[in-house]
Structures are given as structure tokens and as C-alpha cells.
Amino acid sequence: MTMPIYLDYAATTPVDARVAEAMAGCLTMEGIFANPASRSHFYGWQAEEQVELARRHVATLLNCDAREVVWTSGATESNNLALKGLFEGSGYKGHIITSVIEHKAVIDPVLWLEQQGVEVTWLTPGSDGLISVDQVQAAMREDTRLVSLMHVNNEIGVINPIAEIGKLCRQKDVLFHVDAAQSAGKMSVDVETLQVDLMSLSGHKFYGPKGAGALYVKRSIQHQLKPIIHGGGHERGMRSGTLATHQLVGMGIAAQIAKDDFEQEALKTAALRDRLWQGIADLPGVFRNGSGVVTPGHLNVCFSGVDGETLLLSLRELAVSSGSACTSASLDPSYVLKAIGLSDEDALSSIRISLGRFTTTEDIEQAIAHIRTIYTELKQAV
Ligand SMILES: *Cc1c(COP(=O)(O)O)cnc(C)c1O
């Protein structure tokens, strides 16, 4: 069997070969396998040195101090730490502003905080999928403690005006958390420019390993963050647990590669994505979801009039996703697409195609031809 073309980079990316090589050097007796917290021998010092080098690579990507990078197991944990960690300190008092199209890894912890007594304003985006500065400003209250918004939406790829919202939050003395799992490694995530206090990253979204992530915590607010995992007091007391040397070394190399290459890569990926859209846009009843500024790798398309599950199953030559990866196990229409105004039917007829580092021109030409054939067949069948 020939393998389908992988066009689901927004769900996860393969590990870059350079990352895999570095990771393989951190596993066996001959490698840098030790516990970075072992202070009494050379093996431990070596591991600590490599993990700290990786931390500096992530800090360079974020333009922050290495002491502001807290290792986690991924963006889900980073979001949980940011949200629960801050509000535990306040006895679950105060107000959060977030949006209804956040990833479940923000929505679910915020719902949990709401049960503990935190008050929440859930903003709804416009049909472009964006949250505006004006919306955030209008929702601000005396007791607003935190704004939590995603940088790039995982389903439709739209880019929120983070720098402007960051500026507003600074003026109002409100903390700002950004889930940057979809943007890090693909566009600038400079925490100074964006004026962010907390930022979540996921290694496997930018060619690092799954199970590795980080939370940027601005130095001046670290004392406000309570840990959600208690143990040996690792990570300046914010996140206990033996550091996974191989995972973190891998994420560090991935960050270093991304920092060097993301601008060029973005141009290449956007050109392929635009070619793909150009190749299918004339099909009757086909439209693109989420207007405005979109990340280079995303293309969310509604094939109205055909059932999305049938389409997905028929597109045998492509590995793509319906809605978001996390909801693709169920047949509910995507809550993101519904929030930007799609009917249940159109939401169910939409698929997310996402491109990345290893996507080629041939992949895209083959994808266009395949989509055209299948869509025309399915349209004739109805
Ligand atoms: C993938 C993703 C997450 C979850 O990241 P994990 O590292 O898999 O836990 C959170 N938020 C967004 C926007 C994502 O795309």
C-alpha cells in the first residue's frame, strides 16, 4: 500500500531527523541519560548541562530569560499550570476573560475554575474567527485577573492580535496568558513584543517529540504561580518531576531549528498552501473557513453539500482531519466552526488540511487532483 500524503501537521508533526538524532544520544549508557537533578556526579552534570542548553534554545525562541522557561509535558499541562496555578494563589477569586474557540486544554481548566468560584467571560469571535482588542477591553472589570487567549487557532489557523491585546492588559494591570501551541516555531513568539506574561508551548507541534512542552512565566509573576504537581521542587518549585533529558534536548534542538528557519519555511509553506487552495477554489460549493490573517500551514475548507465523514473516508490518498484532532473521535460538528457562524451541516462538511516542513510540490499537485476527483464523484452521488 502506498502511504497517504500527510497533511495533518496541525495535529502533530513528525520529529525532525536532527531532533531524533540528538534524542537518541540521550538514552543509553553511552549517551547523556542521567537525571539532571543528580548533583553528585559527572553523569548528572552532563545531563543538566544539556537540559539547560535546551532551555536556552527555547528562551531564545521566546526572547526571554532561561529562568522564565518551565518544562512541562506539553501545552495541555502548561495551560493547566498557568490557569489553575494562578487562581489557586487567589483562593479561586477574581475574573477571567477567555474565548469560546480556545483549545479544550484551555476551555476545560477554565470550566473547572468556574466551578471553584472564578468568574468567567467567554468571548465569541466574529465570522473571521478573531477576538478583537475592543471585545477584550469591553469585558474588563475591576476584578479581572487574567486574559487567556490563543495565538493561532488550531482548527482554522487564524492569528489573534496578541500584541495589541497584550498592550491593553499591561495598561490595565491584568495578566495575559497565551496558548501558543500552534504558532511557536512557525511565526514570531517574542514575549516582549507580544507583551505576554505566560505562554504555553508544545514540542510536538514544531518537529520536537510528543510529551514535551514549556510554560513561559514572566519573572516578576513567578511568586504568584502555585504548582499543580507537587514533588521534589524542580523547576523553581513550579513543576516537580524528574526532567526527561531526551525529550527536552529534543525540544531544544527543535526550537533552535525553528528559530533559524521559520521565516523561510513560512514563505515556502504559504506558497504551497495557496497553490492548494487555488487548485480547488473553483469547485462549486467550496469555501474557506476563517478569513483574515491565517498561519502559513492551515487550510480549513467547507465542501458544502457532501458529508464530511464520507469525504474524509473517500480521500484515501490524504491524511487530513475533520475539525480539530481532539474532537475527531466524535461526530459533533466543530464548536469552533459553529462559533464563527457555520451551520451544523457546513461544519460537518468541513475538513482541515495542514501543511508543514516536509510537504512537497508533488504532494500538493496530487492532493489537488485527488480532491477534485473525489469531490466531483460525491457531488454526483447526491
Ligand atoms: C496541540 C494543542 C494543545 C495541546 O498540546 P499538547 O502538547 O498535545 O498537550 C493545546 N493548545 C493548542 C492550540 C494546540 O494546538
Fold and architecture overview:
The protein has 382 residues and is an alpha/beta fold. It folds into two domains: 5-12 and 262-381, Aspartate Aminotransferase, domain 1, CATH 3.90.1150; 17-257, Aspartate Aminotransferase, domain 2 (3-Layer(aba) Sandwich), CATH 3.40.640.10. Helices cover 40% and strands 14% of the residues. It has twelve helices and twelve strands. It has helices spanning 17-24, 42-62, 75-89, 104-116, 133-139, 162-172, 191-194, 245-280, 308-314, 335-339, 344-348, 361-381, and strands at 5-6, 69-72, 95-99, 119-123, 144-150, 175-179, 198-202, 213-217, 286-288, 298-303, 318-319, 350-354. Strands 2-8-7-6-5-3-4 form a seven-stranded mixed β-sheet, with helices on both faces. Helix 4 links the parallel strand 3 (95-99) and strand 4. The longest helix has 36 residues, at 245-280. The chain is globular. The two termini are 30 Å apart. The structure holds pyridoxal-5'-phosphate. Pyridoxal-5'-phosphate is lined by residues 74-76, 103, 105, 150, 154, 179, 181-182, 202, 204-205, 213.
Question: What does the secondary structure layout of this molecule look like, with pairings?
Answer:
Blueprint lengths: L4 E2 L10 H8 L17 H21 L6 E4 L2 H15 L5 E5 L4 H13 L2 E5 L9 H7 L4 E7 L11 H11 L2 E5 L11 H4 L3 E5 L10 E5 L27 H36 L5 E3 L9 E6 L4 H7 L3 E2 L15 H5 L4 H5 L1 E5 L6 H21 L1
Parallel strand pairs: 1-11, 3-4, 3-5, 5-6, 6-7
Antiparallel strand pairs: 2-8, 7-8, 9-10, 10-12
Helix pairs in contact: 1-8, 2-8, 3-4, 8-12
